[in-house]
Every structure is written in structure tokens, then in C-alpha cells.
Design a protein that fits this description.
The chain is mainly beta. The protein has a single domain, classed as TolB, C-terminal domain (Neuraminidase, 6 Propeller). It contains 2 helices and 27 strands. Strand 24 and strand 25 form a beta hairpin. The longest helix has 18 residues. The protein is globular. The N terminus is likely disordered. This is SMP-30/gluconolactonase/LRE family protein. InterPro entries: 6-blade_b-propeller_TolB-like (IPR011042), SGL (IPR013658), SMP-30 (IPR005511), SMP-30/CGR1_Lactonase (IPR051262), TAT_signal (IPR006311).
Length: 367
């Protein structure tokens, strides 16, 4: 039995090496997830919930696994100049790099203060939300040096910068929940200093302002293609996780008309998301971890089961600009965040727990 197990593992690692997935190295390979793409076209993992989504599905495209061996993949950002994707592996405290040309995944940078969200600014520089320890937003300059863009507000340290987006006027918007200082998994437990969990804006002049102050642990955020609306995930919505929509004022700063656009009523764990050129929202999805009120029998034990089964929820939900469900992309792992990339900006990268998956679609990222 041991010899069979060893042979199977050697075969799996050999397969990973052939695809470039074994380049992560070290103990992280313990989290490598075997994956077999669907053999049939169209891919049954792409489930159409509304006929209007059919134009976005490519008949002969299927979900692919492009990286594995991670502990918690997050914050993907695509860089068209180099044809690569950067993303965070938060518990391993590193930023990873997937190279489209070679198909390999390597460590881009270690000891990144548990970076969560990443983004590319309009000058092609990397913006990162250091989620713990330093608790700041930084920019990687062309020479590789880091510039600190924000680390405190009104004289008090930020909570745990999470997700980040850049507007066409070069302003930078980011969320500041508590996840990076709530425990020891995504950083180090620390005392909060901010009274609220805000959404912040860094102006082109470097001035930091709190633009939303009444959300409980805001998470993912994105603008509509015309930037007239800002969408923000609230982790602790009422009663479920939600995406709120705000009208952006003519000044490009002020927000009004707070409206609930999406309610994850099926126990979905809304996290990060991206918007395509048609205004559709492509949302990371999975179980929110809520438990049933009463235990059930499982092998003679009374167990509190999840309200929503992970195997039914893990993947990506796509919604129209009006919040109507259009499609579900089923994945073997919960998807935390996404990015559009590829030479034509039509390859959807999905950062999902231990792996990153990709799917070509007939949609293009708005930015």
C-alpha cells in the first residue's frame, strides 16, 4: 500500500512539474490539489442561469488549473506588459507570479507583510495591501523599491488593508476591515486603532480620506465601467453578505444613494469581484461558514453542519448590472477573488484557496 501511494504521489508531482506547477517548492506542495479538466465541450462547469449569459460562454473553452500548492490564494492582478499574473498566498506571506508564456508559477516576493489585495496602477506599477504587521498600502516602483501610500488615518494605524482598485483619475480606493489582525492565520493578532472599518480614497495628491464609514468589514470593491457607480462587498451584511452600490458624484469623490445590489441569500461567501465592460459583476463565491441551528447525526456524533454545502457553492457567480444572477462557474475550491487578463483581456483568473484557475470567456475586464 505504501509503495502504491508513493508511486501515485511521484506520478502526481511529475505531472505538476510538467505543467510548471511544482515550482512553488517547500512545504507548500502539501496543499497541491489534483485537478482534471472536463473533457466535454461546452464545459459543464459553466452553468448558465439566464439565457443572456450564453454570449459570454466560449463553447470550446474549459476551466484550467494554472497554479496550485498554496495555502490561501488572493488578490490577483494582471500585468499585460509582461504577460503575467501576480497574486497573494497570504498565510505563506508571499506574492506569487504566474507567467503565461512559460506556464510556470514562482515566488515573486517573500516577507510581504501578509499582503492581500493587489492591483496595477495606470503607470503599470504594483499596488499592494499589506494585510498585517505594517498594515499599509504600498506601491512597487519600477526600480523595485517600495513607496508607502497610506499607513494611518487621523494619527491612528489602519486596520488591515484588504482590496484595492484604481480609478481613471489615478485615485486609489481600498477597503480596511479587520481580518488581518483578528487572528494568527493571515498575519498577527493586534489591537485595532480605527473606530470604524472604512473604505478609503487616496487622491492623486496623496491625501487620504474615508469615503465610506458605515460598513462592517468592507471587502471587495470595484467601479462600473463608466465609473458612475462604486460597488463594495460588506462581509457582515444584514442578514447576509452583500454588495452595496453607490452613485459617484460629478466630483469623482462623493458617494450617495447607497443601495443593496446583491444579497448572498444562499449562504454564499461574497469576497472579491471584478466588473466586465458590459457592467456584469463576476464574484468569488463559496460557503460563508454559517452553521445550522441544530446538530444532525453523523457517524454517531451530533455535528453542526454548514447551512450551505461547499460543493454546491464553490466557484464564481456572475450578476448583471441590475443584480440578476446570470451564471455560475463551478470550481473544486472556494473562489476568493478574480482578475481579467490574457493578451485580449478575456481570460478570467480565479484565485481559489489552494489554487488558481483560469477560463477564457467572451467578456473583457472593464479596466
Amino acid at each position: 500500500m505504501f509503495e502504491q501511494h508513493t508511486a501515485r504521489r511521484r506520478g502526481f508531482l511529475k505531472t505538476l512539474a510538467g505543467t510548471g506547477l511544482a515550482t512553488l517548492g517547500g512545504g507548500a506542495l502539501a496543499q497541491a490539489i489534483p485537478f482534471t479538466p472536463n473533457a466535454r465541450y461546452p464545459d459543464p462547469a459553466v452553468q448558465i442561469l439566464d439565457p443572456s449569459f450564453a454570449k459570454y460562454r466560449i463553447y470550446s473553452s474549459s476551466v484550467e488549473q494554472v497554479a496550485t500548492g498554496l495555502r490561501w490564494a488572493e488578490g490577483p492582478a494582471y500585468f499585460p506588459e509582461g504577460g503575467y499574473l501576480l497574486f497573494s498566498d497570504i498565510p505563506n506571506n508571499r506574492i506569487m507570479k504566474f507567467d503565461e508564456k512559460t506556464g510556470t508559477t514562482t515566488v515573486f516576493r517573500n516577507n510581504v507583510n501578509y499582503t492581500n489585495g493587489n492591483a496595477r496602477d495606470r503607470q503599470g506599477r504594483l499596488l499592494s495591501c499589506e494585510h498585517s504587521v505594517t498594515r499599509r498600502v504600498v506601491r512597487t516602483e519600477k526600480n523595485g523599491k517600495l513607496s508607502v501610500l497610506a499607513d494611518s488615518f487621523e494619527g491612528k494605524k489602519l486596520n488591515a488593508p484588504n482590496d484595492i482598485v484604481v480609478k481613471s483619475d489615478d485615485s486609489i480606493w481600498f477597503t480596511d476591515p479587520l481580518f488581518g489582525i483578528n487572528g494568527e492565520w493571515e498575519g498577527f493578532k493586534a489591537q485595532r486603532e480605527q473606530a470604524n472599518t472604512n473604505v478609503f480614497r487616496i487622491g492623486p495628491d496623496g491625501r487620504l480620506t474615508a469615503v465610506i464609514t458605515d460598513l462592517v468589514n468592507p471587502n471587495g470593491l470595484a467601479f462600473s465601467p463608466d465609473e458612475k457607480k462604486l460597488y463594495v462587498v460588506e462581509w457582515k451584511g444584514s442578514p447576509n453578505r452583500s454588495i452595496w452600490s453607490y452613485d459617484v458624484g460629478a466630483d469623482g469623490v462623493s458617494l450617495s444613494n447607497k443601495t443593496k445590489l446583491i444579497d448572498a441569500a444562499d449562504q454564499g461567501a461574497l469576497d472579491g469581484f471584478k466588473v466586465d465592460r458590459d457592467g456584469n459583476l463576476w464574484c468569488g463565491w463559496g460557503s460563508n461558514g454559517a452553521l445550522d441551528a441544530e446538530p444532525t447525526d453523523a457517524g454517531g456524533r451530533k455535528v453542526y453542519q454548514l447551512k450551505g454545502r461547499s460543493e454546491d457553492l464553490d466557484g464564481v457567480m456572475v450578476f448583471s448590472p441590475q443584480g440578476k444572477p446570470l451564471a455560475f462557474i463551478r470550481l473544486p475550491e472556494r473562489c476568493a477573488n478574480l482578475a481579467f487578463g490574457g493578451p485580449k483581456n478575456n481570460r478570467l483568473y480565479m484565485a481559489s484557496c489552494h489554487s488558481v484557475y483560469a477560463l477564457y470567456v467572451e467578456a473583457h475586464g472593464a479596466v
